Amino acid sequence: MQIKILGCSGGIGGSRRTTSMLLGDDILIDCGTGVLDLEIQELAKIRHVFLTHTHLDHILSLPLMLDTVQEEAELHPLQLHLTQESDQIVREHLFNWKLWPDFFNLGDAEPVVLESNLHAVGDAIKTVQCELQMLPAQHSVPAVGYLVRSTGGSLAFSGDCCTNDSLWEVLNQQPSLDHLIVECSYTDAEQELSVKAKHYCSSSLAEDLKKLDHEPNIYLTHLKPGAEDEIVAEVQKLVPGRSIKALHNGQQFEL
Ligand SMILES: [Zn+2]
Ligand SMILES: [Zn+2]
Q: Is position 34 within any domain?
């Protein structure tokens, strides 16, 4: 199965796009601005959206996408996979007829176009091509990561995250780990901000990487716009001996 990175920046500007990845041609993990680059025909193929959390940079394209593919979604309702806490937030604050129509319920006479599938950390969700397991994450709102397993290997994605033990414990329980996409939003100069915003900075990520027993290819994501090279250089220096690179828009993984 192919995984394509549609967006992996901590912000916008130029060619930067916010978090989203496409699994095969019908599954998204997160729905940031990277989704806006897909053609209408590609959008219409998407059946499942797995959310890490409800921050705008991870869900921005979801309401717009639903509006564009509504006819298709009337035939195959889009399946939203998320935690109960995130479900409550999107219903209350996004699909509330004020920011956007309530696509969960457009009216009694209207077909269903969006359905929630509630999951908890540890749940493994099987799809035709892969299995996605919800991973624990630590962030300023309820958040999870995902472990994707397919016949060709495994890839873990932290989502937005700050220092914790549970993510690393779960990863160490896996028999193997081929790729790790982990966020690192800030340089060490912005350590104070990273603690407040509950994101990793270079040194807090470097400390947590010591907890990981596996030696996957590590890709840093959610880098602050303009500070990308500096963050990657800082982490590489603090964690010598591991394969650490920046994640790039358009990058593909074969699992
Ligand atoms: Zn966030
Ligand atoms: Zn984010």
A: yes
Tell me the ligand closest to 222's alpha carbon.
Answer: 2
User: Which tokens in the block code for residue 182?
Assistant: 């982990």
Q: For residues 148 and 102, state if they share a domain.
A: no
* Ligand with smallest separation from the Cα of 54: 1
* Torsion sign over Cα 226, 232, 235, 238: negative
Nearest to 37 by CA among 1, 8, 71: 8
Q: Taking the model in full, what pTM does it have?
A: 0.97
Rounded CA-CA distance 30/15 in Å is 18
C-alpha 107 to ligand 2 mean position (Å): 32
Q: Find the ligand nearest to 197 CA.
A: 1
In a domain, 254, yes or no: no
Residue 241 domain boundaries: 121-247
Largest CA distance in the chain: 60
Does a structural domain hold residue 194? Answer: yes
Q: How far is the CA of 102 from the centre of ligand 1 (A)?
A: 23
Using the mean position of ligand 2's atoms as its centre, give its distance from the Cα of residue 10 in Å: 6
- Dump pLDDT digits (tens) for 131-189: 999 999 999 999 999 999 999 999 999 999 999 999 999 999 999 999 999 999 999 99
Nearest ligand to the CA atom of 60: 2
The answer to whether residues 52 and 106 belong to one domain is yes
